[in-house]
Design brief:
Length: 364
């Protein structure tokens, strides 16, 4: 009996184990199905995300910018120093460019305070900021711009002779490359004629200029030839900067009957100092431009710096908005020259000017 019961118990346990085994297999199979399904779903998700990302990327053609009439521009202005002539040129430039482009142009205007090294720093900042065009107002500013970039268009103004400023032999009137602009060169022979007209009895003419300005050297060298042809004896009186200007002017006054000052930026920004030495000594100054004449001179054959600024602004508009090739643009010159006189200084020195001279208007 015990054997029968043991056999029955054994059979029952075997059935239970078989059932558990079948259940485990079924559960495992279901788990595997769930795992496979999850894997398939996870594998599909990155593919869908990738496809979505590709759809979101812009077409390469859509990233290209097509120039339009509404395109905006940034112009960097490097002005050597603040004085009447350069201020007028910058004003004319900005007025003309705003008239052409309206609010599509913005200006980054920087003044180097008469320091050529500061001009280089300013130009480097313009290059780093990738401005669309640079205005270099005065020769040292132009030289710094030329050294700083050969890609950004550079327009000079208040530059007397570009060949001299940029060291170009046999200059023909077009710089080429990325440089053009306007010149403030007045007719030096005409200035020599004017000096002779006003002071026919003078014998010694002092040529006062800053030796650091290449175009000042060019002017005094050129006018010296014309004056010597008229019988004058000419002597150079050069100063390196404003620090030695007083001593040099004092020396020139002691040895000259008339002093000639070209379009010189250092002299222009120190015209009052020159006047305070020359006027009490009774020595008249003939100036290369109106601003210097207003400060210390008696007469000038001058251009309008505002007008050459306007001409430069129109050149800039052609380059920026019309795609003009700066490398083919010749240097432009002032079309008009006017004989002007400083009424106060002429009266103080007892000088009467001919009727065709125009009085310089001074600010009240």
């Amino acid at each position: 009996m015990k054997k029968v019961l043991a056999l029955l118990l054994t059979l029952a346990m075997a059935g239970t184990l078989a059932a558990c085994g079948d259940s485990g297999k079924e559960t495992a199979a279901k788990g595997q199905e769930n795992t496979n399904a999850a894997s398939e779903e996870q594998a599909a998700q990155p593919q869908e995300a990738e496809e979505g990302t590709q759809e979101a990327e812009p077409d390469e053609a859509d990233t290209e910018t097509t120039p339009t009439d509404g395109e905006s521009y940034t112009v960097g202005i490097c002005q050597l120093v603040q004085h009447e002539a350069l201020d007028a040129a910058t004003e004319g430039f900005m007025d003309a460019l705003k008239e052409e482009l309206g609010d599509r142009v913005t200006f980054d205007m920087q003044n180097a305070q008469g320091d050529a090294n500061t001009c280089s720093t300013i130009i480097n900042s313009f290059v780093s900021n990738d401005v669309d065009l640079i205005l270099a107002n005065a020769t040292p500013a132009l030289q710094a711009a030329a050294a700083g970039t050969n890609e950004i268009p550079i327009l000079g103004t208040s530059v007397t002779e570009y060949g001299v400023a940029l060291g170009i032999d046999d200059f023909t009137g077009t710089v080429g490359g990325n440089i053009s602009g306007t010149s403030d060169l007045a007719p030096l022979e005409g200035q020599a004629d004017m000096l002779a007209e006003l002071f026919p009895d003078a014998k010694n003419v002092g040529l006062l200029y800053c030796s650091a300005e290449a175009n000042s050297q060019y002017q005094v060298d050129t006018i010296k030839t014309f004056l010597e042809e008229k019988g004058y004896s000419c002597e150079y009186y050069s100063f390196s900067d404003s620090n030695d200007l007083s001593a040099v002017v004092t020396n020139a006054v002691s040895k000259s009957d008339v002093i000639y000052v070209p379009t010189d930026n250092t002299a222009a920004s120190n015209a009052e100092l020159v006047n305070n030495i020359c006027l009490p000594a009774g020595i008249p100054v003939v100036a290369g431009e109106e601003g210097i004449c207003a400060g210390c001179g008696v007469a000038t054959l001058s251009i309008s710096y505002y007008d050459i600024g306007v001409a430069t602004g129109k050149m800039a508009a052609k380059i920026l908005a019309q795609g003009a090739d700066i490398s083919t643009m010749p240097i432009e010159y002032a079309p008009l020259f006017t004989k002007k006189y400083n009424a106060a200084n002429c009266e103080a020195l007892g000088i009467t000017v001919p009727e065709d001279y125009e009085e310089i208007k001074t600010a009240e």
